[in-house]
C-alpha cells in the first residue's frame, strides 16, 4: 500500500473515533479527549502531507503549533470543567441543563 | 421655488413634535397648543402651496431636487402635481382637526402628540416625494407612530390590533421594497427618480425578470404593498380591527389619509411607470373594486358596532376609487382622485361623530341607543349630514366623485359598473338603517340625560361639513386642480398600452 | 523569512504591538490594585483601545501588504473590521464598569482578557494562511470561553462556559481537519496559493465539497449559523451581559471577516478585485451558503418568538442576523461584501445598544424577563426611547441605519440577478417575522402597564452618555452622505 494512504487512513480513523467519542460520551473529560483525537488526526494529516506531498517543513511546523494550542485549550477546558464539578459534584454534561432549552 | 415650501410642509409637524418632547408633561395646555400651532402652520403652508400652484401646468411643480446619497444615486426629490396637491391639502386639514378631537386623550399626552406629529410628517412626506427611496422612507416612518398610537391609546384589544396592523403593512412594504429595487436596477444608470422611471416606462416594459415580464412582476410586488394600505379585499382584515381599537382621532387619520396612500401609490408609481402591466391588470383591478364595494357594504350592513360599520364603509368607498382609476378614462380618473379627497373629509366626519357619542355613552352598539334625536338635536343634524354625505346624496361632495367614477367606468367595464351600482343601494341601506335605529323610535331611558355635542366637537366638524357641502355644490375648483395632471396620466398609460399591443 | 523582512513587517504591525503593550501594562497595573479598585484596569483598557484606534488611523492609506511572510495581510478590509472590533470592545468595557453582575469581585483579568480577545480578532481578520487562521481563531475562542465563565460562583455562567468550550473546541477541531485535507490537496497553506492550485481543476470536486462542509463547521460556529448555533442561546444567557453583548458583535464580525476572506480568495476563480468574482467551477458554495443563510435566519427568528428572557431572545435574534449577513457572502462581489461590512458596523451599534439597555434594567430591577419590562417606557422614558430605536434598527425599519444596512444587503442580492431573488424574498419576509418578537419587548415596555410612576434616577450619567453615543449614529448617521457606506465600499477595494 502507498505510504501516504496508510497515514490518511490512520488519520481518518482517529477523526472518526474522536467524532464518535464526542457524540456518545457524557463525561466532559472524555469529550475533551475525543476532541484531542480530532486534533491529532489533523496533525497526522499535516505531517504526512508534508512528508509525501509538499516535501516542505511547513506541515511539521503547523503540527507543532497545533500541539501547543491543544495544550492551551485543554488547560482552559479543564479549568472550566473543574468549575462544573464544583457546582454539580460530577462532570456529566447532561446535568448541566439549568439554562433552558 | 426657493421657498422650500414642500420641505416646510413636510417637516413642520415633526419640529413641533420635538418641541413637545421637551415640554414637561404636567404642562398639558402647552403641549396641546404646540401641536395645534404645528398643524396650523402646516395648514397655512399648504394654503400657500395652493396659492402658488399653477393649475394650467400639468407637470410637477415646486420641485426641490438635491443629491442625497450619491453612491446609490438616491435623491432628495420633492414636487407636486395635480395628483398630489389634493392630498397635500387634505393631510394638514384632517391632521389639524384631529388634534382637536384628541384634546381629551386620557394619558401620556406628551407622547401622544409627539407621535401624532411624527405621523403627520410621514404622511405628508409620502405625498410630496418623487424619489422612490424617499417615498419608501416616509412610508415606513409612518408605521412606527401608528403602532404606538393604536397600541397605547386604543381600545380593549389594542395590542392585537396594533401588531396586526404593523405586521400587515410591513409585509406589504417589504414586497414593495423588492419591487422598488427591481425597478432601480431595470435602468442604467440605476435610479429611484420617479420622473425618469416614468419616462423610461417602455424600456422597463421590455425587460425580463425571473423569466417573466419585469413590469408585471414588479407591478404585482408593488400591488401587494399598496393593496394592503387601501385596503383591497382580501388584504383588508387589519382594517376593521385597527379602526375599532384606535382612538377617535387616529381612526380619523387612518381612514382619512392613510388609506389614500395606497391608491396614491398606484397612481404615482404603478400607473405611469408600469403602464403595460397596469392595462394588463385593469380588469382584475376593476373586479377587486367591485368586490370592495359590495363586500364593504354587505359587511357594514351586518355590523352591530357603529365604528365597525363606518370602518367597513371605508372599504366600500375605496372600492369606487379602484373602479374609477382602473377604467383609464378622464372621468374615472378624476372621479377616483376626487373620491380620495372626499372620502377623507367625509369619513373624518363619520369617525368623529362616532367618537362624540362614544365619549358620552361609552359604547357603540347601534341597537343600544334609540330615539335620541329628541335629546341631542344638533348632534342628530350633523350626523344626518355626514351620513347623507356617506351614502352619496346629490348636493354633497361624495355624490359628485362617485358619479364620476361610475361615468368613467361605465363605457369600459359596463357590467361591473352595473353591479357596482348595487353597492350604492346597500350603502344607503346601512347608513339609513343605522340612523333610524339610533335616533328614531322610542327613547332609550338610559339616555334621558344625554349631553349635547359641545362647542369644541362642533367646531371640529363644521369645517369638514363646509367643505363637503361646498364641493358638493361647486366641485369645479378642486377638479380644475387635478384634471390637467390626471388627463395626462390617462394619456401616458393609454399610449404606452397602445405600444405594448393592448 | 529573514530578520530584515520581519523588521519590515513590524512597521505594519504597530496597532497590534501597541495593544500588546497595553495588555502588559494592564497586567502589571492590576498587580498593584485591591479587588475593590481593580475596575480601574478598565480605564487602562479603554485608553489602550483608543490609542490602538489612533494607530489604526495612522495606517490609513497604506496599500494592501502581506506581512510576516504573508501569514497576515494588512488591507482596508482587515482595517475596517479592526475598527469595528476595537470600538465594540471599548463600548463593552464601558458597559462593564458599573455592572452589578461584576460587583464585589476582582475584574482586572476581565478587562485584560477582553484586550487579548481584541488582539486575537485583529489577527483573525488579517490572517491569510491556514495556520494563522486557525491559531487566531483559537485565540479568540479560548478568551471567549474564559469570559463566558467569568462569574465562576454562578452555576449558569459555568454551564455556559462548559457548553461553549465543548462546542467550540469540537467545531474548530473539525475545521482543522478540513484545513489539513485542503493542505494536502493543494500542497500549500497560503489561501491565495490554494486558490491558484484549485483553479487548475485537478482536485476532485467531491473532496472539495467535503472540505467546504468541514470548514463551514468552524466558521459557522464562530458566526453562529444554523446548524452550528446550539451553543449560542445558552452561552448568551449564562455569560455576564456585557460579555454577551460583546460576543454577539465582535467575534461574529471577525468570523465573517475570515469567512469572506477564505471563501472569496481560496474558493473562487479569478482576481478578487474584479467586480464580479465567481465561485470555483464544480463547487457551488454560494448556493450552499444561500441555503445556510435562509435556514439560519428562519430558525433564529422562529425560535426567538418563544423566548421570555431578553438575553436569550437577543441570542436567537443574533443568529437571525448572522443569516442576513450571510446573504452578502452569497453575492460574493464588491457590493455584497461592502454591504456585509456596513451591516457589521451598524449591527455592532444596535445590538450593543439593545444589550446595554438589558444591562441597565438588570442593574436597576435585577430581571432579565421581558414581562418585567412592563411600564418601563414610562418609568425611564429615555431608556425606553433608546430601546425603541435599537429594536426598530434591529427590525430594519427606517429612519434608522438598521434599515439602510438591510437595504444594502437586499440591493446586492437583487443586483445579482434572478438567481438569488428567492433569498431576498426570504430575507424580507424574515424581517416581518422578526418584527413580531422585537415588538413584544416594546409592547411590554409601553402597552402593558400604562401609568406614570415615579421617575427613575438610578442611571449614572456616563451611561446616558453612552446610550446617546449609540443612538445618534443609528438615527442620523446615514442621513448625511452616509460616510460608513463610502468607507465600506473603499475597504473592499483594497481586498488582498
Descriptive overview:
The complex is a heterotrimer of chains A (101), B (502) and C (496). Chain A is an all-alpha fold. Chain A has one domain (4-88): Helix Hairpins, CATH 1.10.287. Chain A is built from 3 helices and no strands. Chain A has helices at residues 3-24, 28-54, 58-88. The mean pLDDT of chain A is 89. Chain B has 2 domains: 1-277, no CATH class; 281-502, no CATH class. Helices cover 74% and strands 4% of the residues of chain B. A two-stranded antiparallel sheet of chain B has the order 1-2. In chain B, strands 3-4 form a two-stranded antiparallel sheet. Chain C contains 20 helices and 4 strands. In chain C, strand 3 (268-269) and strand 4 (278-279) form a beta hairpin. The model of chain C has no long low-confidence stretch (mean pLDDT 87). Chains in contact: A-C, B-C.
Q: Topology of this structure?
A:
The complex is a heterotrimer of chains A (101), B (502) and C (496).
Chain A: H1 3-24, H2 28-54, H3 58-88
Helix pairs in contact in A: 1-2, 2-3
Chain B: H1 5-21, H2 28-52, E1 61-69, E2 74-80, H3 84-101, H4 109-128, H5 132-141, H6 143-153, H7 158-186, H8 194-199, H9 201-206, E3 208-209, E4 212-213, H10 214-229, H11 238-245, H12 248-273, H13 275-302, H14 306-326, H15 330-361, H16 377-391, H17 397-409, H18 414-439, H19 455-473, H20 476-500
Antiparallel strand pairs in B: 1-2, 3-4
Chain C: H1 3-11, H2 14-31, H3 40-58, E1 65-67, E2 72-74, H4 76-96, H5 108-126, H6 130-148, H7 155-186, H8 191-199, H9 205-222, H10 231-238, H11 241-266, E3 268-269, E4 278-279, H12 285-305, H13 310-331, H14 334-365, H15 376-379, H16 381-395, H17 401-416, H18 421-447, H19 461-476, H20 483-493
Antiparallel strand pairs in C: 1-2, 3-4
Helix pairs in contact in C: 2-3, 2-5, 3-4, 3-5, 4-5, 4-11, 4-14, 4-20, 5-6, 5-11, 6-7, 6-11, 7-9, 7-10, 10-11, 10-13, 11-13, 11-14, 12-13, 12-18, 13-14, 13-17, 13-18, 14-16, 14-17, 14-19, 14-20, 16-18, 16-19, 17-18
